[in-house]
Amino acid sequence: MKTNDQILTIKSAVLYILKSFPNGVDNVKLYKLMYFAQQEHLCRFGRVIFDDTFKALPLGPVPSFTQKAFEYQIRLHDNEAHKHDEASEEITESMKQFCQSFQVHKATNEKGKLVTRISSSEQPDLDELSKSDIECLDKIVNEYKHMSAYDLAKKSHKDQAWLDTREKMKEDPEMYRITSIEILKSANATPAMIDYVKENMQIMDALS
Questions:
Q1: Quick check: 44 pLDDT over 80?
Q2: Would you state the pLDDT for residue 107?
Q3: Long-range contact list for 17-25, CB < 8 A, 24+ apart?
Q4: Tell me: the pLDDT tens digits for 100-140?
Q5: d(CA 45, CA 39)
Q6: Strand, coil or helix: what is 186?
Q7: What integer pLDDT is reported at residue 130 of this predicted model?
Q8: Distance CA 18, CA 90 (A)
Q9: Within 10 Å of residue 204's Cβ, how many Cβ atoms?
Q10: pTM over the 0.90 mark
């Protein structure tokens, strides 16, 4: 379960990306921008921008908490949220508050397919993002904002971390989590950076 601080950082990162898409963005494209920004920052600075676990899904890496929150919001919009959703430990008050910052709806894309679009008029809390976080978010958004969700998904399918995790899932479907170390290796991070991240992860595990 995410802490309030973790959720605030995820929300700020998503809102920061959405500043470049005043008319909203396809959720698949949003998730890929989040992944590549996370990878960029992890490789350059040895830490993540936000603490959201990426899953290796068929359309590429997807941030678990963010996806779950937006799917819940779609069910509410469609009046399909059932009582078990409300009772679920996964649907926390913090997640509901997260959802209040976004508008999530179904729309038809340029290929005539029904997709989920995310938008927001709320500004990100920049106190939740470091200078390096913003630098990497800007770099990835500027580099990929003109690519379609389909092309970004195809690009993510060439990512070795996603490929390796999908391969592991053939043996065990529960091995869907893309680890930080796999993300680093996929980005050709230096051995020194990989060791640095491993050491920090071990310290965090020992303190938890």
A1: yes
A2: 84
A3: 17/137, 17/141, 18/102, 18/118, 18/119, 18/120, 19/123, 19/124, 20/141, 20/145, 21/119, 21/145, 22/119, 23/119, 24/103, 24/107, 24/117, 24/118, 24/119, 25/117, 25/118, 25/119
A4: 999 998 888 777 788 899 999 999 999 999 999 999 999 99
A5: 10
A6: helix
A7: 97
A8: 25
A9: 9
A10: yes
Nearest to 1 by CA among 52, 35, 76, 42: 52
User: For residue range 151-160, what is the model confidence (pLDDT) as tens digits?
Assistant: 999 999 999 9
Two structure tokens written together for 87: 């009772």
At residue 55, the 3 state secondary structure works out as strand
Single-letter code of the amino acid located at 182: E
Task: Give the number of residues written for the chain.
Answer: 208
**CB of 55 closer than 8 Å to CB of 177:** yes
Distance CA 76, CA 52 (A): 23
At a CB cut-off of 8 Å and minimum separation 6, what does 76 contact? Answer: 99
| Token digits of residue 90 | 């996964």
Residue in this structure with the two tokens 């899904």, named with its chain if needed: 57
